[in-house]
């Protein structure tokens, strides 16, 4: 395959996770069955999956990024390979499995930003810790894993993978995303012992912690994480918070969203682009508050284009938007 010819050189960021296409279909009304034909304004084929969108967002910010994943040897898979290359993400570590179709998600999006997601797994969930040997980890500074609850082949070895990465000097992050089964595999709590940054919205954080109160859930999760760890709490249109242990205390930083030019198109991938902004800013040495402002700016800017990668900002744009924001420190 073409990807195999790419040199396995170093990069700042390794993203390990799923790879799939997104089909974005805006709908104004409820979907009607009974063989009703409904007209929609557009159908957009674009890069999908939390992990790949985060990788593309980091690359857009100038972060050297490679994706560790699996795809099928089919039309969707070849489309994704070409798109990743076009968007600056290294593909040499993507394994091609000709026995599986490439994963696909269909997003039915409403004007208010809400959406339903229909996913056919295919190759999703087949990437494993074996796809990230120490020789690969040594070439990077940070390891990010996306969509933990879809990574069924990785889950049994997730903690060991993060531990290997940290032992080799990498920082680590995890974006659990939503668990379609809503079982909230308890193994993720074990893996958090080796995770420096955890991303999640309230539903995800409460699910992982098995706690109905988001603030209580964040505290419980931080208690599971290494000293100095951060939980980035995604708050959608309200922005985001960074919860951080400082010595024996807890610091909570809050940041609202910037005024971004243009109309909101959709929110697909906004949280994944936010994660890309936070990780990229940290790799540039930015402090937590500044990293949070850049992250929120990246997520907000991404809603001005279709799909997860249609409007991901570059570093100068993200930095300019972040400069308009105030990061407040809250007591907790």
UniProtKB/TrEMBL annotation:
SUPFAM superfamilies in the record, alphabetically?
Ribokinase-like (SSF53613)
- Carbohydrate kinase PfkB domain spans which residues? 12-308
Q: Which PROSITE patterns match?
A: PFKB_KINASES_2
What keywords appear on the UniProt entry? Kinase, Transferase
Give any GO molecular function from the UniProt entry. kinase activity
Hey, which family's this protein in? Belongs to the carbohydrate kinase PfkB family.
PANTHER family (UniProt xref): OS01G0105900 PROTEIN, SUGAR KINASE
Q: What is this protein called?
A: Carbohydrate kinase family protein
Which species is listed as the source?
Leifsonia virtsii
């Amino acid at each position: 395959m073409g990807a195999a010819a790419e040199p396995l050189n170093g990069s700042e960021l390794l993203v390990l996770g799923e790879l799939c296409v997104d089909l974005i279909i805006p709908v104004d009304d409820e979907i009607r069955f009974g063989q009703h034909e409904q007209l929609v304004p557009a159908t957009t084929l674009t890069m999908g999956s939390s992990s790949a969108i985060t990788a593309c967002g980091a690359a857009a910010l100038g972060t050297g990024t490679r994706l560790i994943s699996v795809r099928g040897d089919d039309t969707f898979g070849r489309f994704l390979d070409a798109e990743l290359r076009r968007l600056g993400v290294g593909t040499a570590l993507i394994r091609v499995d000709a026995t599986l179709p490439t994963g696909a998600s269909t997003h039915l999006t409403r004007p208010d930003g809400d959406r339903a997601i229909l996913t056919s797994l295919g190759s999703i969930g087949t990437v494993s810790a074996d796809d990230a040997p120490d020789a690969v980890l040594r070439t990077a500074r940070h390891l990010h894993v996306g969509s933990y609850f879809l990574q069924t082949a990785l889950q049994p070895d997730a903690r060991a993978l993060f531990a290997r990465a940290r032992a080799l000097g990498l920082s680590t992050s995890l974006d659990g995303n939503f668990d379609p089964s809503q079982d909230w595999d308890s193994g993720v709590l074990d893996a958090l012992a080796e995770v420096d940054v955890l991303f999640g919205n309230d539903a995800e954080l409460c699910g992982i912690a098995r706690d109905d109160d988001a603030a209580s859930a964040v505290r419980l999760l931080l208690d599971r994480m290494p000293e100095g760890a951060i939980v980035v709490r995604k708050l959608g249109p309200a922005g985001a918070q960074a919860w951080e242990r400082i010595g024996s205390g807890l610091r909570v930083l809050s940041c609202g969203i910037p005024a971004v030019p243009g109309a909101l198109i959709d929110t697909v991938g906004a949280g994944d682009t936010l994660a890309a902004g936070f990780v990229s800013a940290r790799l540039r040495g930015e402090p937590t508050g500044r990293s949070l402002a850049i992250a929120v700016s990246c997520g907000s800017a991404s809603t001005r284009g279709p799909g997860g990668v249609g409007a991901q900002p570059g570093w100068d744009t993200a930095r300019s938007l972040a400069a308009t924001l105030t990061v407040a420190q809250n007591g907790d």
